[in-house]
Every structure is written in structure tokens, then in C-alpha cells.
């Protein structure tokens, strides 16, 4: 992260800086892959090089980019992705992506190599975060749904002016599938009074160091856990953010109707008494 002007960066979350690659002008920009890392059996971290070493993406918290490739038949395949690299980082950006067997874009992306390019445009605004909007926020995620949640967690924690307290409930199939675990654990260790994380896995692991402990539980993110650990629905200083695959969203909040329409709040959070205004679906 470029920290030479950190305080000004955090105060200017509205306008794209002069060294931004993506300015919302609708132009597609090709970025080359500079590094590929395997994170799990079906997930990789892709690092993309920005056109200039002193440039930033131009994203704000919370926002995403659209990625595109053209099929051999000439059809455009477009998907939204949220970079996990710091929004103030210069010279490169990182995406953490899971491969889906029937996923057109992920199948294409996982077939690429270093120096191959991907087209991007944006930013695509999501929730416009401002420091200290809420006293507490709860983040509930599944699988690669961690990406926008991590963007928010990281931005809040590294901003010395933001005192928001964060609880993350993050579910995956196995401990090996927990994406960005080292980054999340590092933030929890460095900011213990601000950020707490609870991992949930469907299956236990026999690998050393991955057994159940205070932050790793077997099972799903249950209603009783949320009821006991979340602020009550009457607390208007608290906001909930979610992101995960469709079955996950259906269980906890109901899916969005469209990027602009959050839809009705259903599922576990509705049953616990929270209102539509208290929950945001990435």
C-alpha cells in the first residue's frame, strides 16, 4: 500500500484520483496477468498489472469492476468482480476467483497464463462507505462472497479515522477452502478490538493446525449463533452486509432482484427480526 498520503486518501472516497485507471467512463481497458497463485483446489489469486506503476485502480469502498471476454462466436461474456487488493495500492490489483464447472468466464480465466490479458471497466459502485457510518457492522459470507466483505474489512481496519467494529461470519466447505484466511487472521491479530472473525466449515480437517478452535467451527452459520452474537434488531447503529452463492443468500437474506434492486428481506435474518434497511446484499 502507498501510505505517503494515507489520510487524504481516506478522506477522498468520492472522486477518482488523478492517477486512476478506471474512472467510470465506460471504456474497456486490457490488463495483463502478472502472477497466478493457487489458493485452494478450485480458487486462484490473479494479479493484474496496471498500465503505469504509479496508478491506482480508481475503486472506492465498496465498488467492483466488470470483466469481459469475447467467445470464438463473437459473444461477450461479462462478470462483476471485486478486487481484494488495497484500493490505494499502486501498479497492480488482485482478484480472488473460484472456478465453477459450468462457469463460462471462470473456465476462460483459468485457461489463461501470465501475460495474457483481461478486459475491465468500472468502477461499479455498490455501498458507498463513509468512516463511522455505524458503530458496528456484521458481515456474513460464503465462499468467494468474501471478496467485497474483505474489501470493506481491510479499508475500515487500516483507516485510523474509522472506529467501526466488525464481526465476520464466514462459511466454507473445508478449512482448506477458506479464502484470504491469512489476510483475515492478520487483521484480526493486528486490530483485535475492532475486528473479530468466526469461520464455519461443513467438513472437519485432519491437517495439523486446522482443527476446530475458538475461531473455527464445524457446521453452518446458525440462527442461534447469529441471535446470540449480533446486536438486536432495535439497534439502529448496526448494519449487516452479506455476500455468497445463491443458495447461501436464499437461506440468510433472499437474493437481490437486480444490481439496483435489493429485493425483499427473507430467510434467517428476516426471521431474527431485522428489516430490509438493516441488511445490504452485495
Plain-language structure description:
This protein has 282 residues and is α/β, with parallel strands linked by helices. It folds into two domains: 6-123, Translation factors (Elongation Factor Tu (Ef-tu), domain 3, Beta Barrel); 136-281, Rossmann fold, CATH 3.40.50.80. The protein has seven helices and twelve strands. The strands form two sheets. The protein has a six-stranded antiparallel β-sheet. A hairpin with a 5-residue loop joins strand 3 and strand 4 (76-81). The protein is globular, with a radius of gyration of 19 Å. The protein starts with 5 loop residues before the first helix and ends with a strand. The relative contact order is 0.13. Residues 1-12 have low confidence and may be disordered.
Amino acid at each position: 500500500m502507498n501510505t505517503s498520503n494515507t489520510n487524504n486518501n481516506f478522506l477522498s472516497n468520492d472522486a477518482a484520483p488523478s492517477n486512476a485507471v478506471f474512472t467510470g467512463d465506460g471504456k474497456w481497458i486490457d490488463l495483463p496477468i502478472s502472477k497466478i497463485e493457487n489458493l485452494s483446489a478450485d480458487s486462484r489469486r490473479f494479479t493484474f498489472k496496471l498500465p503505469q506503476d504509479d496508478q491506482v485502480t480508481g475503486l472506492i469502498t465498496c465498488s467492483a469492476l466488470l470483466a469481459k471476454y469475447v467467445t470464438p462466436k463473437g459473444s461477450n461474456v461479462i462478470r462483476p468482480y471485486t478486487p481484494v487488493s488495497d484500493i490505494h495500492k499502486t501498479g497492480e490489483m488482485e482478484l480472488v476467483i473460484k472456478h465453477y464447472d459450468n462457469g463460462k468466464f471462470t473456465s476462460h480465466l483459468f485457461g489463461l497464463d501470465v501475460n495474457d490479458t483481461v478486459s475491465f471497466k468500472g468502477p461499479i459502485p455498490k455501498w458507498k462507505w463513509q468512516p463511522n457510518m455505524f458503530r458496528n457492522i456484521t458481515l456474513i459470507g460464503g465462499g468467494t462472497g468474501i471478496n467485497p466483505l474483505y474489501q470493506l474489512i481491510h479499508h475500515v481496519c487500516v483507516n485510523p479515522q474509522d472506529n467501526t467494529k466488525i464481526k465476520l461470519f464466514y462459511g466454507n466447505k473445508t478449512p482448506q477452502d477458506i479464502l484470504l484466511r491469512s489476510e483475515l487472521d492478520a487483521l484480526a491479530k493486528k486490530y483485535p478490538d475492532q475486528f473479530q472473525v468466526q469461520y464455519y466449515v461443513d467438513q472437519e480437517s485432519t491437517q495439523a493446525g486446522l482443527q476446530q478452535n475458538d475461531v473455527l467451527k464445524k457446521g453452518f452459520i446458525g440462527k442461534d449463533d447469529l441471535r446470540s452474537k449480533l446486536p438486536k434488531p432495535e439497534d439502529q447503529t448496526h448494519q449487516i452486509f452479506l455476500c455468497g452463492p445463491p443458495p447461501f443468500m436464499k437461506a440468510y437474506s433472499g437474493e437481490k432482484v437486480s444490481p439496483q434492486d435489493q429485493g425483499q428481506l427473507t430467510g434467517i435474518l428476516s426471521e431474527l427480526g431485522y428489516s430490509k434497511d438493516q441488511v445490504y446484499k452485495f
